[in-house]
Amino acid sequence: MAAGMVPLALGTQTAGSLTRPASYCGVAGFVAAKDQFSTAGVTGLSHSFDSLGLITRTVRDLRYAWESLSRFETVEHDGPLDSVELLLWDGSGLGEVSTEMSAALIAAESTLSRQLGFHFSEWSDHGMVRDLAEQHATVMASEASAARAEELAHHHELSVPFAELLTSGRSLPHHEYTAALELIAVSRQRVLALLERFDAVLGPAALGAAPAGLEATGSPILSRPWQALGLPVLTIPGPSSSDGLPLGLQLIGAPGREPRLFDIGQRIEESLRPKGVKKGATLPLYH
Questions:
Q1: Which of 55, 71, 97, 148 is buried most deeply by CB count within 10 Å?
Q2: Nearest to 66 by CA among 203, 276, 266
Q3: Which SUPFAM superfamilies match (predicted)?
């Protein structure tokens, strides 16, 4: 996608398998709300979290693909967006967010406030987000060990991280698994109530730019809380690091309000696009 070879890619996300690479590659990504699309035929990992997603060059193309797949009637929204209220989340407590990623988020807030008149409030409940990340890890490990029991029997043939995930899940007490699900359900209601007052949550899509080398793919930690809640998430291409590597932002919304999420995401992308880069990318889907 980032190389301009295809206009659309399909993917899945259980923790951060779509949001993170989209951020690293400087492309637009979308994780659909849990259960919006069937996962029949997908080799899943955690039935509570497995979701389908899309990757394109631009948010505009994402919207076009999503509307086609969901059979949503396409409506152009090129007029101004009035009274956009966003919660600004900086990823506190979930890992070491790079200085450049933090600066990109602050710069985005300034640009969107100044150019578009967006209103921002600070996300305050960092404890709940940290708890959600832990609960997500518990549920994912438990369900993965059950779903991939056959592979676990040959754990010596698996990658070390995957073997560790399945092994840790097998050792988790069932009551910890059910307790995590219950706590996630409570948090979901709290966040959905917040999203009745705010249009979306804007935050970093990853801890920073893509890690060097081929030994690791980076941490999914900043996606875990929102994936646990089953919310639709946009990854929006942002600026570049000092090394020229992409930095992405994520926009989290409420299920059923995806058109509004795409409206806002398109405006953010257009406002953050570097000068000299034309609107409409290579191999556009939307005509």
A1: 55
A2: 266
A3: Amidase signature (AS) enzymes (SSF75304)
